[in-house]
Fold these 4 entries.
Entry 1:
Amino acid sequence: MFLTKISAYYFTHSLAILSDALESIVNVIAGFIGLYSLYVAAKPRDREHPYGHGKAEFVSAAIEGGLIVAAGIMIIYETVMNFLQESPLQKLDTGLILVGATAVINYIAGTVCIQIGKKNSSLALQASGKHLQIDTYSTIGIIAGLIIILVTRLLWLDKVIALGMSVLVIYNGYRIIRTSLAGIMDEADLQLLNNFIAVLNRNRRANWIDMHNLRVIKYGALLHIDCHLTVPWYLNVHEAHKEIDALADLIKREFGDAIELFVHTDGCLPFSCTICTRTDCSVRQQPMKERLTWSLENIVSNRKHQL
């Protein structure tokens, strides 16, 4: 596709098409970087990497975002350098056919990458897919601009289109960098946390009196989950462990098998009675007042809840 776009530039001398071709260089480089990151991320955990190698995908996505920004800057440079020069356009119809074909192929490839990336929780594949789709949108914009140039013969529009595409490219590169850095810094995924909390509320067991200090971290496809679970104080070790097993089964059923779960069990205290839904508790000291609904605000705090 890169060679096709370069050929289209050769036929037309269009800076807009050149800007599209320069971004395709990034596609080639980023594809190899992404492929290597997937190879590294798929390695099993070892002594040096007890949480696995999944964060290699975040690094790959950050590099890809940086390359996209660099491509945008290159497009601006080429456009500014040629802005005052008259560069006659030619064979725009041939160029339109060539870049139009690359747009269709890019979009299909990007859609496939995103679907497989979501299925396998792969940030590298999703970043590559979004990049390919962004490339498609910019190509469509260029095609529309070239059609306008064909009709109006306003050749200066070619340079304006190239500048507009460079801004779009840089912005989307920034978004990919922002997402990858969030993963590297273990930034909370609010959408994932809210989905997780909703599943817990829907499937809550009577012995799960309370939960707090919840943390969910993504390492590539692996979800690492920490939490404190309050259970009746009189459960023995085996009974408490059964509650943890039930929690693990629920999470794996809803979010897949790539789960690492660490649960600290707390025994309930007298103030827990007001939020405990057990109806057969023989040692209850206070009546239940309200069923506490877990939310993002109360479940991530590092304290036991009480009314």
Entry 2:
Amino acid sequence: MRILLVSQMYPGPNDPDLGVFVAQLEHELAARGHELERAVLDRRSGGKRRFLSLARETWKKARSFQPEVVYAHFLVPSGLIGALCSKAPLVVTAHGQDVRNIGAVPGLRTLTARTLKRANEIIAVSSFLARELETKLPQVRGKTTVIDCGVDLEQFQPSDQAEARSELDWAGEGPLFLCVGSLTERKNVIRLARAFERLGKGSLVFLGDGPLRGELEGVAGVSLLGCVPHQRVPRWLAACDVLCQPSLIEPFGQALLEAMACGRAVVATRIGGPPEFVSPGAGVLVDPVDDEALVRALESAVILPCPNEAGRAAAAEHSVQLQAERIERVLERAVARGTVG
């Protein structure tokens, strides 16, 4: 198939961590023999005007490449742009914020409904997200398939913890807890830091940045390392004992899946996608607003096996190769059906 990939998130020189999951799926689809062209944004900077450049690039690529199918990541604006710029069948993936914005951002419900009416197929990265989308837009029921973006089991695999800690120059005592993601209210980082303080042992490392950084600075045992290149994340996962993502809501939880692939236990929110793949023995699910439960979750997770074979086995069911194969079938159905809307 000739596939035009449209995404508002894609790794770039200044933002190498942006939409890595999109690039991984692109690579796997190409490895399966498909021809791909991309129209993407590979930077966070530029404000909303950058979406105009994405639209121009998509229009240009659609004219020259003549795709058999447009494969867009995020409902609006990427999916809408794909729908407007090409008459080819459209497959669009919902990731989370694009669904939460429906009803919260003026006019977005109408634009999203228009996009999804035009789409042949809709992919959601979790059943939780599919239910939320179908609740907000009941007319899309029956068009949604649940497929997450998968994990690269070669890049993320169990490795020696002592070697990783030596390489990263980490010499702390006690368990090492790791949190990968933005320092935002939704990620629940303040409550996590307070639970760690009450635990009273080990270290807590945050990889990521955001508006709550100032409130975390100076907390005993907490290190704020900012954003790190995505290729360095496996080393930090190898070094840690537990990956923590007790978000207030998590549509899927990519960092959790990557940690499980590395054989590390996880502490994950009960709200959203994580209960769909965090298996018993792989980690602890927690009510994200229950302070006592979060402390207990840290205590329980740190005594789970390391490396954690249950986590690795669960992650293997979500390999990027398997997910690319599933997406391939969705794209083929869209091509066979032809343009709708």
Entry 3:
Amino acid sequence: MTSALLDQVNAALATVNDPEIRRPITELNMVDSVEIDEAGKVSVTVLLTVAGCPLKDTINRDVTEAVSKVPGVTGVDLTLGTMTAEQRAGLQEVLRGGQAQREIPFAQAGSLTKVYAIASGKGGVGKSSVTVNLAVAMAQQGLKVGIVDADIYGHSVPAMLGVGDVRPTQVEDMIMPVPTAHGISVISIGMLKPRRDQVVAWRGPMLDRALVQMLSDVYWGDLDALFLDLPPGTGDIAISLGQHLPNAEVVVVTTPQEAAAEVAERAGTMASMMHQRVIGVLENMSFLPCPHCGPEHRLEVFGSGGGERVAQTLSARFGYDVPVLGAIPLELALREGGDVGRPIVEVSPESPAAQQLAKVAATISGRGRGLAGMQLGLTPAGRF
């Protein structure tokens, strides 16, 4: 075995990322040993965080593929072990970067992650579908995106992303978000329940604790954008979000009818009361393209003008422009995609609904970061 070949093998291992943490396995101290015999066969031992790691097959494939490409390697023998409690504690320290526990990284002064809270006044307006598709569309732009399913009682985001039955990996008291095939990571209270059909019956303090846990105890890494799918209305979670993430930017989702528009205004007003900025209104189920006459004939199933009314009311109330970001038409593919975990922006990007959602994602991701809710890190030098 030559030191040059060993260096090349170690360099190849450094290109392999843990599929959940998304950092090199060498950096995470997951490579326990590397041995090369005279014939060029490499024996590698990689330590998994837990014995039942759900993505161990991915690690096996990626390590074998990376090492096999090194010139001079004739074979790869990979052994998957499990970290000890001490090694997991060391990994946790590496991931936290020396920061104190129970600290929400997105609320820190130096955070570069844009936080988008998707809110609505009432249920049934398609808020979760909007959240999922906006997040996937933003990931398609090449951004690192995560979703917190903060709708504690009505958590539906995991199923819409095809990971409804997946459970997150835990490293000591740190939780890994669940990666998806769509390039985004997600965490939901539904993933933390013992059973998928178990009912969550919590009140205020427990709801706040759950939100803090999903923001602080989950290792998100360096995200460009974090989406929060809020429960409908102006309850405990909306208040907690304002307290913990005052820098979050809020998108209000409504449907065209008057009843939905009126309560959507309340959701926007709640965000403003918590010193968050409402960056726009999104009208979902805006119209149905006529199946007989063609898309130029719009059937206004739920009426019209609701999104515009909400935007005008909030603009007048806040004293700054709250635009209508887009109007999403009713499409069968949008509903079907949510049911089977295949977002419409991915499977039918040419459809009118997907194009509108992609346009909205591009609009909000291109906005400059405001100073609302941000800590400036200034310390007074003395009294005047």
Entry 4:
Amino acid sequence: MGRHAAARISRGGVLSTSAPADADFRLNRRALRRAFDRAGASYDASARLQAIVRAELLERLQDLPLTPQAVLDLGAGTGQGARELKRRYPRALVVALDVAPGMLHEARRRSRPFRRFERLCADARQLPLRTASVDLVFTNLMLQWCDELPAALKEIRRVLSPGGLLLLSSFGPDTLAELRAAWAGADQHEHVHRFPDVHVVGDQLLRSGFSRPVLDVDRHVLEYDTVLDLMRELQGIGARNASERRAPGLTGRGRLRAMQDAYEGLRRQGRLPATFEVIHAVAWAARQADTGAAARAGGDVHIPVGSIRRREER
């Protein structure tokens, strides 16, 4: 596995994501990478939801009998997940992979001599790893930044060994619904990304060569004093608007004020809510005899009844 190589990247573009079916939706990959690269130092202080979801995802591993030799933390950010994966699987080779050098620079501090993990800078759509070389892929709130979800899932399937496990979380379409609606009343530009729903994710898992996918959905409601506090937190994790259809230049004060006024109508008990819909999925890399069979037969994605829950984080 290669080591992280430093790179100079200049500043990028406030938030946006879409379902693969939206052919007109495209992300500016360079702007996206710049935004996450510059957010490395501020990420952990702003990523409270990411920390909550990461802990939930790691907890799911307790019920899975795994002894992986190679583990990939895909979209590893500052290495919090990779550190925990190395603690859980001390004999495994753990690789923290991220597209942003700034994130991997921060991750270096969490790789210790007796809990060392490797760092690799690469794009999820083109993983520089051998076919069938990984036993577990762990990816927390990263895949929503891939507007080419099928390509990313096919790459994950390629590097997973037959019978290997994919454990993922991703944002669903109700994420930031309040912010999206507030901006819609201010102008016609795209300010908030469109995210794939749980059925799209399940279908794409089957089409990419995964079997027995089990998916469920959580809704977290975070609260803020002002909508600007929400936007600062999003910027702190690098979640800037990287849509190719974003408004050119800076947003005018009038439009920003119109958005804030619209959002104020949602205030309750002195606070403003922001909804984050989180999709969780567990899927196994189909063995050769099963590859494509589920997709050809129409597939079977298991979404437990009553799995859609709402959590309020204060």
